[in-house]
Specification:
By secondary structure, this protein is of the alpha/beta class. The protein folds into 2 domains: 99 residues, Urease, subunit C, domain 1; 290 residues, Alpha-Beta Barrel (TIM Barrel), CATH 3.20.20. It has 15 helices and 17 strands. The strands form 2 sheets. Strands 6, 7, 8, 9, 10, 11, 12, 13 and 14 form a 9-stranded parallel beta sheet that branches. Strands 1, 2, 3, 4, 5, 15, 16 and 17 form an 8-stranded mixed beta sheet that branches. The protein is globular and about 70 Å long. Bound molecules: 3-[(4S)-2,5-dioxoimidazolidin-4-yl]propanoic acid and fe (iii) ion (FE).
């Protein structure tokens, strides 16, 4: 999306939720004005205090709406073939997620479908899902691979993820997740698959610049901390950042391993203990919490939100969109779930899908309405900041502005 002067504008008659440290909850500014120049935020403050050099700019009346930073979905598995509705029915009938996986279903059923689906078709189905997310206020998204599990298929997914960020009005941070599950051809040779990831996949992906980070599923049904340590050493040698699915279904001490590698984030964290929280805090990492998977799996173990607060570990919230455990497309609904299911405050939830989500992706140029940050922001038809986390479904998004330019969200 080219930045140009036509987007230079004063967006006024709005309540700004800046998420900056200005002493007000949400960094709130009533009767505010947001000045955009060349795709960046030039100024944010009370309309009555607008600096005179900006007074000649064109103006846009926001009709008293609320403005937040653009939403950032920092954890998705958006690109995949096939569907898992049949498994949904099995699980409703009482079959456990792990048992479906051990019987060759679960992730591996989506792997079979993704390997067979042509690249353009993967793009089309993912683009349809992404357009719905944009209509809910998303301006930046993280997209993982992980349903290919062989070099060519993983690179196919990563190319689709890159293309989504180029073709659609959203920035895509792309993550390689080859260590998502053991592919059938390596079921008796775990080390062989780890070697394939470390010696072939990662170098091909780095050479083609297809990924910004490397992730792994550290879980009994996934990979051990020792196996992920090998993958993270190889990723670091290639200059790639790391993040980790950790402590989702049990405590495999993935968070401590991730902290040893100064990962950007550890994600899920339902079974995280105090030693793990301390490790995240010491490493300056973000805890990415995924209420959609917790809800969809009917999990009962909650992530240690009180400990994360006590250790000042920033919490981000994401959809974890994937066909098996979180077919979610609305970040505001995830905000609601994080509050209702785990006791986050509405302000923590909004910070979790903006400023903290940006940090989970290593991005310092977005996530607040702060001068110098990207002019990615959303207009909301709400009457109170907490309403963003209050609604169950529905869509209060009244406009999405990406790099200063308002998007056509269609009908
Ligand atoms: N954790 C999850 O919940 C998903 N992947 C992961 O690492 C499950 C993905 C799937 O079931 O397709
Ligand atoms: Fe995930």
């Amino acid at each position: 999306m080219p930045d140009d002067t036509t987007s230079n504008m004063i967006w006024e008659n709005a309540t700004l939720l800046t998420l900056c440290d200005n002493g007000a909850p949400y960094g709130r500014i009533d009767d505010g004005a947001l000045v955009i120049q060349d795709g960046l935020i030039a100024w944010a403050g009370p309309r009555a205090e607008l600096p005179s050099p900006f007074s000649g700019l064109a103006r846009r009346d926001c009709g008293g709406r609320y403005i937040t930073p653009g939403l950032i979905d920092c954890h998705t598995h958006l690109v995949y073939g096939g569907a898992r509705i049949d498994e949904f029915e099995q699980r409703l009938a009482g079959v456990r997620y792990e048992d479906i996986a051990h019987a060759g279903g679960g992730i591996l059923s989506t792997v079979r479908a993704t390997r067979e689906t042509p690249e353009d078709q993967l793009y089309k189905t993912a683009a349809t899902r992404l357009k719905q997310m944009i209509r809910h206020g998303v301006t930046t998204i993280e997209i993982k691979s992980g349903y290919g599990l062989d070099t060519e298929s993983e690179m196919k997914i990563l190319r689709v993820a890159r293309r989504l960020g180029q073709d659609l009005p959203v920035d895509a941070s792309v993550t390689f997740l080859g260590a998502h599950a053991l592919p059938p051809e390596y079921k008796d040779n775990r080390q062989g698959y780890i070697d394939l990831i470390c010696d072939e996949m990662l170098s091909r992906i780095a050479e083609d610049k297809l990924a910004d980070a490397v992730d792994g599923y550290c879980e009994k049904v996934g990979f051990s901390a020792a196996e992920m340590d090998q993958v993270f050493q190889a990723a670091t040698r290639l200059g790639l950042k790391v993040k980790l699915h950790a402590e989702q279904l049990s405590n495999c001490h993935g968070a401590i391993l991730a902290a040893r590698h100064k990962a950007l984030s550890a994600d899920h964290l339902e079974y995280l203990d105090e030693a793990g929280v301390d490790a995240l805090a010491s490493a300056g990492m973000v805890a990415v919490l995924l209420p959609g998977a917790y809800y969809f799996l009917k999990e009962t173990q909650k992530p240690p939100v009180g400990l994360l607060r006590r250790y000042n570990v920033p919490m981000a919230i994401a959809t974890d969109h994937n066909p098996g455990t979180s077919p979610a497309l609305s970040l505001p609904l995830m905000m609601n779930m994080a509050c209702i299911l785990w006791g986050l405050t509405p302000e923590e939830a909004l910070t979790g899908v903006t400023h903290h989500a940006a940090r989970a992706l290593g991005m310092a140029d977005r996530g607040r309405l702060d001068p110098g940050q990207k002019a990615d922001f959303v207009l909301w038809d709400i009457g109170h900041p907490a309403e963003l986390a209050y609604q169950i479904g529905g869509n209060a998004c009244a406009g999405v502005i990406k790099a200063g330019r308002e998007l056509d969200l269609g009908d």
